[in-house]
């Protein structure tokens, strides 16, 4: 009977091949049906591996389960990528069909043969006009952003200048107070000197009076 050790390398190889096939589907080299068949085989082998791992030794079972889980995640991822690609391709085809129906309703079947070409030109012109308008709007937004940035810079400069002015005014206020204190101290010193001179003259006059 097949064991996990025998089947797991084959399953990993199949998953690797399907990765390449999914990329080839995206560029149109491989049919999606073939990849879906391969994914079905991959999922079948993974299911068998889940059954076989129960027969392995308990010590090795956890390691095998982890590797099988990685393969299962890879299979889910590949199927998701393929489904999304097919949905996107179907949406593109539906949009192309709707455009053709719109042109047919607009110009009628069997009418002017140049009408579809003119319609395409009109659509291209509308797209170009939209792009020009978008570019103009981007320029306006960038200009507004630059103006706002300049205003913010000016506001920062004004705040800095205001702070400097306040610092100077505070410094001048301190200097004014210090000057006033010095002037008052000078006046007091003059009064003390004058008083001392008067007392000295009085003492000398008294001494002279006593001697004479």
From TrEMBL:
It comes from Nannochloropsis gaditana. InterPro entries: GOSR2/Membrin/Bos1. Keywords: Golgi apparatus, Membrane, Protein transport, Receptor, Transmembrane, Transmembrane helix, Transport. It is found in: Golgi apparatus membrane. Its main location: Golgi. GO terms for cellular component: endoplasmic reticulum membrane; ER to Golgi transport vesicle membrane; Golgi membrane; late endosome membrane; SNARE complex. The chain crosses the membrane at residues 191-211. This is Golgi snap receptor complex member 2. It comes from the Eukaryota. GO terms for molecular function: SNAP receptor activity; SNARE binding. It is a single-pass type IV membrane protein. Coiled coil: none annotated. GO terms for biological process: protein transport; vesicle fusion. PANTHER family: GOLGI SNAP RECEPTOR COMPLEX MEMBER 2, VESICLE TRANSPORT V-SNARE PROTEIN VTI1-RELATED.
């Amino acid at each position: 009977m097949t064991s996990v050790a025998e089947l797991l390398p084959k399953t990993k190889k199949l998953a690797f091949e399907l990765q390449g096939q999914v990329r080839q589907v995206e560029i149109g080299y491989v049919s999606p049906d073939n990849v879906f068949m391969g994914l079905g085989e991959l999922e079948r082998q993974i299911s068998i591996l889940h059954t076989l791992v129960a027969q392995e030794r308990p010590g090795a079972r956890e390691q095998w389960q982890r590797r099988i889980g990685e393969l299962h995640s890879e299979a889910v991822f590949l199927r998701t990528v393929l489904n999304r690609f097919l949905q996107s391709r179907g949406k593109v085809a539906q949009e192309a069909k709707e455009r053709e129906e719109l042109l047919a309703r607009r110009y009628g079947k069997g009418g002017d043969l140049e009408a579809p070409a003119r319609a395409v030109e009109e659509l291209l012109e509308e797209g170009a006009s939209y792009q020009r308008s978008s570019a103009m709007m981007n320029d306006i937004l960038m200009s507004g952003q630059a103006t706002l940035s300049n205003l913010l810079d000016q506001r920062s400069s004004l705040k800095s200048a205001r702070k400097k002015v306040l610092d100077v005014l505070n410094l001048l206020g301190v200097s004014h107070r210090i000057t006033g204190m010095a002037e008052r101290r000078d006046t007091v010193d003059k009064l003390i000197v004058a008083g001392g001179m008067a007392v000295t003259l009085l003492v000398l006059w008294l001494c002279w009076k006593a001697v004479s």
